[in-house]
Amino acid sequence: MSKTEKDHRDLFRETPVRYLGYANEVGESFRSQVHVNVVRFSYVVASGYVVADAVSKGIDASVKPCSNEDVRKSNIRRTVLDTLIWQGLASVAIPGFTINRICAFTLFILRRVSSMPEPAKKWTTTAVGLGCIPFIIKPIDKSVDYFMEKTYRKWYHEDAVMQDVVQDASDD
Asked: How many CA atoms are closer than 13 Å to the CA of 139, on its beta-carbon side?
């Protein structure tokens, strides 16, 4: 990796910092094991990641050359909003809901059909939730990409500045 590639490395999408966006999925996986405030805190961590990424993308957009100050401000606003929506859906809302439902269904089934002790049912539910995280990420990212292309980005005619700044990690 060259020096210029390192200088342009996206801290929030190309480093281990991006795993903070998955904190709520981990929290949801442990929901049956921990106090609800621990799960809530995992959402605070994931949401903090989303906001930090949006601010970072806004800063990146602010240094891009523009024809005038109004265009620059508009690009910054649209970039930040695009990032907040994309990350909010792809990193917090949809995966959190998905893991929550997977874990709830798993625990429900185990309680109905298994004679395992309750702690084993809860740990099995946690393991299933954690195990599902790697499998749900790409489909959710691609679905949110599709949704954003058909809605927000179409409505606001995303231009080259935003396309250059707003990139998701789903192409990894």
From this structure: 8
Q: Is 66 exposed, middle or buried (0-12, 13-18, 19+ CB in 10 A)?
A: middle
| Host domain of residue 127 | 3-171
The secondary structure of residue 19, as a DSSP letter, is: G
Alpha helices by DSSP H, listed for 32-117, are: 36-62, 69-87, 94-113
Q: Which of 165, 142, 164 is nearest to 54 (CA)?
A: 165
pLDDT single digits (tens) 13-49: 788 888 899 999 999 999 999 999 999 999 999 999 9
Q: What is the pLDDT of residues 91-134, one digit of tens each?
A: 999 999 999 999 999 999 999 999 999 999 999 999 999 999 99
Residue entry with tokens 């921990």:
34
Two structure tokens written together for 44? 């605070």
Cβ proximity of 130 and 106 under 8 Å: no
User: How many independent structural domains does the chain possess?
Assistant: 1
pTM (two decimals): 0.82
